[in-house]
TrEMBL record, chain A:
Residue segments, region Disordered: 250-291
UniProt-listed CDD domains: ABC_DR_subfamily_A (cd03230)
Organism of this sequence: Streptomyces zingiberis
InterPro entries, alphabetized: AAA+_ATPase, ABC_transporter-like_ATP-bd, ABC_transporter-like_CS, P-loop_NTPase
Record's protein name: ABC transporter ATP-binding protein
Protein origin, superkingdom: Bacteria
PROSITE patterns: ABC_TRANSPORTER_1, ABC_TRANSPORTER_2
Signal peptide: none
Keywords recorded for this protein, A-Z: ATP-binding, Nucleotide-binding
GO MF entries: ATP binding
Pfam families (UniProt xref): ABC_tran (PF00005)
From TrEMBL, chain B:
Keywords: Antibiotic resistance, Cell membrane, Membrane, Transmembrane, Transmembrane helix, Transport
Family label: Belongs to the ABC-2 integral membrane protein family.
Protein name per Swiss-Prot or TrEMBL: Transport permease protein
Topology within the bilayer: Multi-pass membrane protein
Location in the cell: Cell membrane
Annotated ranges, domain ABC transmembrane type-2: 14-243
Length: 291, 245
């Protein structure tokens, strides 16, 4: 663990994802970034900007991904990662006709079939306590409220003590108290268990709670920095204002270059100085894409 | 494939069913009610009831398991649980065999109850062993599960999934020899019925109905049903993708 901690948990180089039918549209275009281990990184941007697609690519469930995408030192989605990466989709992926505990018991058995019944019960209880659902453990998941159901889904991801947690809008629809508790949990996981977290949100005030931020817009990375540095760089008071300032600046640049032909998909060229993906980018843009 | 993961899947599917007692009640009672109805329909022709009744004992499990599986796996696909499972270290065979085992067990209960009522309650005359009827019913159920799993990949909604029942099952029902002997059909239809698995399920049931011994034809027919089930299960496995667009 010690010598590994210097390596990025996720390493993306010139990442591109095509979605929809053929020929399809480019949902993510030439993304290059690193995810630092043991930190809570926020992935922010307007809905439809490619956040979920990027998360699916990291979790290994997204088809038609090109470029380099390494997760914990392995290509995203490869077999050794399946028990080391926890992924929570926006919609809770749990069985509505099982209780919360039965859901967790099944997923625990899938993650580690060598566990005894008692060990599974222990892991299940810990995960339920993590998301503060002990009181509702034996109720049918379908009869829980939306927020409780999404916490059951989150608990599933915590079962196997994953090294990387990819959480797609985990706090949507939750009340402020629960949201605060969950963010405290995220930081506790990073601090105590050394987990790397990538948490998406379209609520900008949550950005302040992250160690680091990735700002996306229209399938491209707008910024990759700490919340504080973003505010400083743009002279904004909040991350929300910083994001808006960056979007406006990008729009101005697009308008300025409107006369010139539009950038074709797949052309990696971007104006120098415009690439916010700071760490490790120089000297790597010619990297070959491996699927 | 990993046995613990497969059994965990079976246990999970059965637990889901346990929370749905109405479905279990319908699965158990409907075939028996229909058989009873049929007994009175053929009130004056008990030998016709023997023929049709034995065939239906093989057909019910296939139809019900087809419906149950196609909806259950469609739900897995649309609720995101399938995507989550396939992002975990679960083999596709673990999932498919887990489902087949769970619904196979359910089918044994269903067919056992229906067979018992048909033989002892409704006076269905079977020359061979009732246990063989159960074996055929189990194979039919696994075939139904396999078909349901396979077609669920082509359904985008539960509406569509239900429509696959008449599309996939009714033609087999018409051509399986239940309505008229297969060799008396128009030759093209007979040829088609020769490649449909339900025809062999019904043939196997009729072998048990007529012979005290286990015949070579019985082995051939059940072998074809089992082989079809394995083939369709493999096709079903191919429709499970870890990566989707």
């Amino acid at each position: 663990m010690m010598n590994k901690s210097a390596e990025p948990a996720v390493r993306a180089r010139d990442l591109r994802v095509v979605r929809g039918g053929r020929p399809g549209r480019t949902a993510i275009d030439s993304l290059t970034f690193d995810l630092r281990p043991g930190q809570v990184t926020g992935l922010l941007g307007p809905s439809g900007c490619g956040k979920s697609t990027l998360m699916r690519a990291i979790a290994g469930t997204q088809a038609r991904v090109s470029g380099t995408l390494d997760v914990l030192g392995h290509p995203a989605g490869s077999a050794p990662l399946r028990s080391r990466v926890g992924y929570v989709t926006q919609a809770p992926s749990v069985y509505a006709d099982l209780t919360a505990r039965q859901n967790l018991d099944y997923y625990a058995a899938v993650l580690d079939p060598s566990l005894s019944r008692a060990d599974r019960a222990g892991r299940t209880a810990r995960a339920l306590a993590d998301v503060d659902l002990d009181d509702h453990a034996d109720r049918l998941t379908g009869s829980l409220s939306g927020g409780q159901r999404s916490r059951v889904s989150l608990a599933v991801a915590l079962l196997g003590t994953p090294e990387l947690l990819v959480l797609d809008e985990p706090t949507v629809g939750l009340d402020p108290v629960l949201r605060r508790d969950l963010w405290n949990l995220f930081h506790r996981l990073a601090g105590e268990r050394g987990t790397t977290l990538l948490v998406s949100s379209h609520v900008m005030d949550e950005a302040e709670r992250c160690d680091r931020l990735l700002l996306m817009r229209a399938g491209r990375m707008l910024a990759d920095d700490t919340p504080e540095a973003l505010r400083r760089r743009t002279g904004a008071a909040t991350v929300e204002d910083a994001f808006l300032a960056l979007v406006d600046a990008e729009r101005d640049r697009e308008a300025a270059s409107a006369g010139t032909p539009a950038r074709e998909p797949g052309t990696p060229a971007r104006e120098p100085g415009n690439d916010p993906a700071a760490p490790g980018t120089p000297g790597t843009p010619d990297q070959d894409g491996t699927p | 494939m990993n046995l613990s993961r497969t059994l965990a899947t079976t246990r999970r599917v059965l637990r889901q069913l346990r929370h749905d007692p109405r479905t279990i009640a319908l699965l158990m009672i409907v075939p028996v009610v229909l058989l009873t109805l049929l007994r009175w329909v053929y009130d004056a022709h008990p030998s016709v009831f023997d023929n049709v009744g034995a065939s239906l004992l093989g057909i019910f499990p296939m139809i019900t398991m087809f419906l149950v599986t196609s909806i259950a796996t469609l739900r897995e696909r649309t609720s995101g649980t399938l995507e989550r499972l396939l992002s975990m270290p679960l083999g596709k065979a673990d999932l498919i065999v887990g489902y087949a085992l769970a619904f196979g067990l359910l089918a044994v209960a269903q067919a056992g109850f229906a067979t018992a009522v048909a033989i002892w309650g409704l006076g269905l005359e079977v020359t061979g062993s009732p246990w063989l009827l159960l074996v055929v019913a189990l194979l039919d159920a696994v075939l139904g599960t396999a078909l349901g799993l396979f077609v669920s990949a082509f359904a985008a909604s539960e509406f569509q999934a239900v429509q696959f029942m008449p599309a996939f099952i009714l033609p087999q029902l018409l051509l399986c020899g239940l309505l008229a002997p297969r060799d008396s059909m128009q030759p093209v239809l007979e040829a088609i019925s020769n490649v449909l698995p339900m025809s062999y399920a019904v043939d196997a049931m009729n072998e048990v109905l007529r012979n005290t011994e286990v015949t070579a034809d019985f082995f051939r027919d059940t072998g074809i049903v089992a082989g079809s089930a394995v083939l369709v299960l493999a096709l079903g496995a191919a429709t499970l993708r870890r990566r989707t667009a």
